[in-house]
Design brief:
The chain is of the alpha+beta class. The protein is built from four helices and two strands. The chain has a single domain, classed as Orthogonal Bundle (Ribbon-helix-helix fold).
Length: 102
């Protein structure tokens, strides 16, 4: 008896488009649902909004698109966590610098 292999809803590859405010400007980003979940989880762990985290990722990227930079950041974050190392990439500024932000 043959069984049909079906992707679970969690592993669906359908892209979801959401609007983010990055660096003070509105932009649309298309990511898989699992990537949105990961980005939200990382933002929560870092005590940031998703918009602020996306802004930090955008400011740190060099040449790739914002969407690609977000995916790479998520992979790097979880790789570092799996290796027991602090995540690399954009980090929160020191406490003294936060007080200077407008």
């Amino acid at each position: 008896m043959s069984q049909t292999c079906r992707a679970s809803p969690r592993l669906s590859s359908t892209l979801v488009m959401r609007n983010l405010v990055v660096g003070g400007r509105r932009t649309s980003v298309r990511l898989e649902p699992v990537m949105w979940e990961a980005l939200q989880e990382i933002a929560r762990r870092r005590n940031l909004s998703v918009h602020r985290l996306a802004t930090e990722i955008d400011e740190a990227r060099t040449a790739s698109s914002l969407t690609a930079a977000i995916r790479v950041y998520i992979v790097d974050y979880y790789r570092a966590a799996a290796a027991g190392m602090p995540p690399s990439g954009p980090q929160p500024p020191p406490a003294w610098a936060r007080s200077l932000r407008v």
